Amino acid sequence: MQRIGVFVCHCGTNIAATVDVEAVAEAAKSVPGVVFSADYPYMCSESGQDLVKESVQKYNLTNVVICSCSPRMHEKTFRKAVESIGMNPYMLEIANIREQCSWVHKDKEEGTEKAIMLMKAACAKATLNTPLTPGMLPVTKRALVIGGGIAGMQAALDIAEAGYEVDIVEQKPTIGGKMAQLDKTFPTLDCSSCIVTPKMVDVGQNDKIRILSYSDVEEVKGYIGNFDVKIKRKARYVDEDKCTGCGLCTEKCPMKKVPNEWNLELDTRSCVYIPFAQAVPKVATIDPRYCLKLNKGTCGICSKVCGVGAINYEAKDEIIEEKYGAIVAATGFEIADISRYDEYAYGQSPDVVTSLEYERLMSAAGPFGGHLLRPSDHKEPKKIVFVQCVGSREEESCKGGKEYCSKVCCMYTAKHAILTKDHYPDTDIYVFYIDVRTPGKLFDEFYRRAVEQYGVHYIKGAVGKVTPHKETGKLEVQGYDMILNEQMHIDADMVVLAAAVEPSHTARRMATMLTAPMDNNDFFTEAHAKLRPVESATAGVFLAGMCQGPKDIPETVSQASAAAAKVIGVLAKDQLVGNPCIAHPDELMCNGCSQCAGVCPYGAITYVEKEFRMPNRTTKMRRVAQVNEAVCQGCGACTVTCPSGAMDLRGFSNNEIMAEVDALCL
Amino acid sequence: MSVKENTEFQPTIVAFCCNWCSYSGADLAGTNRLSYPTNVKIIRVPCSCRINPMFVLRAFQRGADGVILCGCHPGDCHYMEGNYHTRRRMTLLFSMLNYLGIESARTRVEWVSAAEGQRFVDVMDDFTAKITELGPNRRLEDLRCKKN
Asked: What percentage of chain A reaches a pLDDT higher than 90?
C-alpha cells in the first residue's frame, strides 16, 4: 500500500495570495493513500527540503507529492532531495499550482478549488508510480560548433583547450563572422580586426580544431552524447590542401565585376576570390555563379596561373558524416532588410547606408581604404544624419518591424559619431533617437563623450522622410524634435540607418534539425531565461551569441565560453545518465506486428525471437518488440500505435494518465 | 471570468499539453500573469503523440465537457514528428466522436509554442467560451463512475 506525503508550498505570497494553501493541505488528508500533509512558506529552500526528507523518514512515506511551481522549475531539486534519503526519485510528483493556478487566476475560492483538484490528480498519479532506474549512455568525445563567428571561435577554442576535438562548420569561405567586418569596437575604440584576426589564426592553428568552411549542416540525428551529423562541403573548385593562398589567381581572373559581399557589395571582387587578406583558411574559392570556365567552358586562366595545381573545375559538393557528443549553435545574425522603409530612401540613393555599410566605408580594409567618402561621388561628407531604431522597437504590423531592441545600435552609433569627428572634426553629426540605451561598463561615459566632448547633436525624435536631390547631391532630411516640439530640415550628405539585427536566415532550418525551440523572432530559446541561459531545451545543444538574442561582443564571448564549459561538462563524462521515462513492451501482449517500429522516429525498436512457456510444459518461439533504452527518447508515439496495447511509457503510463483524467473530471 | 457572469454552468475542460512546447507555453502564461478560466485543467504528457485516443474517451466518460490537445507547431516537434501522428489520429478520433454525438466543437487540437503564453490564453478563453455555450456533455458520461 502506498503511503503518500503531500507538501504544499506558499512560495511566499506567490501561491498563498490566490490559493488557500492550508485548505489544500487539509483537503489532502482525505485523499486515499495520503498519510501526511503539510504546508510551508518555501518548499524549495533548504529547510523546506529538510521537512520533506524528515517527513519521509518519520512517516515511512513511499510517495511524495509537492504542490508548488512548475515541474520544469524544481522537479529536479525535489527529486534530488528525496534521492538523498534513499527514495527512488521517480516516486515524486509535482502539482503545478503556481504557473498554472495561482498566477493565472484571480479569485481565491476558484483558485483553491483548482489547486485541490491538481493536488488530487498528482496524488492519483503518484499512487501508480513505480521506481525507475535510468540507463547509461555512451558519450562521443567530440563537439560540433555551428558558425565560425566570434561566438563559434571562442567556444571552439575553449573546448579545444580542455583537450577535446572540435569541428567548426561555417557557411562562408572564411571564419571571422561579422566581427571581422567591423572597423572599431565600442567603448574602447580598439581595432576590431586587430583583436579578431589573431583569434582566427589561433583557431586555424589549433590542432584540436578542424575548420569546415564553405560548408552547411545538412542533417542532425541522435541525442546528447551521440549526435550523427551530415555536413555538406560545398565545392569550392580549389583544393584546400594544395592552395597556398598566394592570390595570383585572384589577380589574373578576368571576371572582376562580382559584387563583393565582404564589403557589403559597396565594391567588386574577382570571381575566384579570397574574402579578405587575413581570411582563415586562407584559400581561394571560385564563385560558380560567375565563373566563365564553369558556365561557358572558356577562360580557365586561374588553373593556368596556379603554381601548385590547386584548381579543380570538376569538384563536386561532398557530404561527410560525423559523430559528436555536443553541439554549440552560434549561427549569429544578419542586418534586417530595410528596403521596405522607403521613407529613408535606402536603395534610392547610394548615400543612404546601413551602419554595417558605414563600418566598411570607414574601415582601412574597406572599399575606400579607410578614407570616409560618399559612395555616390566619392566626396567627403560634411553633414551626416544617423537614424536609430530602423526596424527595431516597432509593431510587427508596421512593415514587419521587430518589436525587440537590437541592443548594440545606440553604442555603435556613438562610436561612429566619435570616430567620424576624430578623423574629420568639421563634420556635423545629427543622431535621431527614441531613447539612448547605454547600460554596460563604460558605455554611458562613452555616449556622454560623444555629446559633451565631440558636440554630436542628439535629437530625440524621428525622421519622417529622406529626399535625395539629384542636382545638389544632398539628402533632405525631414525630422521632428520632440523636446523642442518643432520640425527640422537638414540638408545632409549622408544618412546612416541603424537597421535592426535579426537571426541568421538559416537559424530556423538549423533549429528544426536540432529540434531546438525558437521564439517568435527566430532567436533560439534558452532552457531557462534566468538560470540556464546558454542551454537549449534540447539536451546536448548549447547556444552562443546573437542567435539567442541581440548582444554585444563581450556578452557574446562570455556566452560562448559558458557554452563551452557546458559542452566540456558533457564530454568529460564517460557515460551520461539517460532518461528512464521510456517505452517498454509487455512481451506477453506483444505479437510482433512491427507497427511500433514504423512510428519510432529514433529507430529504437527492434524485434527478437524469444522463447515463452506455454501450458503443459511446452514452449513456443515468438517474435516480440524490444526497446533500446539508450536510443528511446520517451515520446510515446509507439504506445498509441500498438494495436494490442502492449507498449507503455514509464513515468507516463496509460494507467497513470487515466488516473489523472479521472481525478480532474470526477 | 465572463463565463461565471453569464451562466451557472461551469464546464470541466481537460487540456493535454506536451512537455516541450505547450506546457511551457502555459507556464509562460503564468509567468506573465495572463489569466484564463479555472475550468481548464492541464495534464502534462511528454509529447502530444503520447495522447492515446483512450484518454480522450476516458475524459468524456468521466464527465469532461471538452478535451483539448496542445502540441508544438508542425515541424517544431521535440521528437521530430510526434505532432503529425497526433494530427492524423485525432482527425480520425474526432470524426468518430462526432458520429457518436460529441459535437466537434468539444474536441480540438491546437499548436502552442513555448513562447506563446498569450496564444495559450486566447485558445483556452475561446475554447472555454465555446464549451460553455454548448452546455454540459452527457453523451458519453458514465454516471456509474460518479461518486455521489
From this structure: 89
Is residue A246 in some structural domain?
yes
CATH assignment at residue A618: 3.30.70.3270
Q: Does residue A283 sit in the same domain as residue A379?
A: no
Q: Do B78 and B24 form a contact (C-beta atoms < 8 A)?
A: no
- pLDDT of B21-53, one tens digit each? 999 999 999 999 999 999 999 999 999 999 999
Helix (H) or strand (E) holding A7: strand A4-9
Residue A166 and residue A287 share a domain: no
- According to the model, what pLDDT value does residue B7 have? 54
User: Are A268 and A255 a contacting pair, CB within 8 Å?
Assistant: no
Domain count, chain A: 5
Distance from CA of B31 to the nearest CA of A (A): 6
Q: Which of A569, A597, A619 is the C-terminal boundary of a domain?
A: A569
Q: What contacts A221, CB < 8 A, 6 or more positions away?
A: A227, A228, A229
Could you say which of A637, A649, A665 has the minimum Cβ distance to residue B14? Answer: A665
For residues A282 and A202, state if they share a domain. Answer: no
A512 touches chain B (CB under 8 A): yes
Sequence-ordered strand ranges (E) for A43-175:
63-68, 92-96, 136-138, 142-146, 165-169
* A322, β-bridge pairs: A229
Identify all chain A residues contacting B77, using CB atoms and an 8 Å cutoff. Answer: 515
Residues A281, A266 share a domain: yes
Note whether A595 contacts B: Cβ–Cβ < 8 A.
no
Mean pLDDT of A98-106: 95
CA atoms within 13 A on the CB side of A504: 24
Contact yes or no for A183/A191 (Cβ under 8 A): yes
pLDDT for A15 beyond 70: yes
In chain B, residues with a C-beta closer than 8 Å to the C-beta of A548 are none
Residue A136 resides in a domain: no
Q: What is the pLDDT of residues A573-627, one digit of tens each?
A: 999 988 899 999 999 999 999 999 999 988 889 999 999 998 999 999 999 999 9
Q: Is A556 near chain B, with CB under 8 Å? A: no
Whether residues A496 and A355 fall in one domain: yes
Domains of chain B: 10-132 (3.40.50.960)
CA distances from A42 to A38, A45, A55, A66, A213 (A): 12, 6, 16, 11, 51
Given CB atoms, is B136 within the 8 Å cutoff of chain A? no
Chain B residues within 8 A of A519 when measuring between CB atoms: 115
- Given A543, A569, A595, the domain boundary residue is A569
Half-sphere exposure of A384 (CA within 13 A, CB side): 30
CATH of the domain at A324: 3.50.50.60
Contacts of A640 in chain B (CB under 8 A): 49-53, 85, 89
Residue among B79, B44, B85 at smallest CA distance from A641: B85
Q: Are residues A562 and A598 in the same domain?
A: no
Same domain, residue pair A209 and A256: no
| Å between A342 CA and nearest CA of chain B | 32
Q: Is residue A259 part of a domain?
A: yes
Contacts of A599 in chain B (CB under 8 A): 49, 85
Same-domain status, A362 and A430: yes
Domain extent, residue A498, equals 334-502
Residue A476 pairs with which residues in a beta bridge?
Answer: A467, A491
Above 60 in pLDDT, residue A317? yes
Q: Which of residues 95-134 of B touch A (CB under 8 A)?
A: 113-116, 121
- Portion 16-75 of B in contact with A at CB < 8 A: 19-21, 23-24, 26-27, 29-31, 33-36, 38, 41-47, 49-55, 58-59, 62-64, 72, 75
Residue A536 has pLDDT above 50, yes or no: yes
Q: Average pLDDT, stretch A7-19?
A: 95
Residues 90-129 of A with CB under 8 A from B: 96, 98-101, 103-107, 110-111, 113-114, 117-118, 121
A359 touches chain B (CB under 8 A): no
Q: What is the pLDDT of residue B79?
A: 87
- Is residue A215 domain-resident? yes
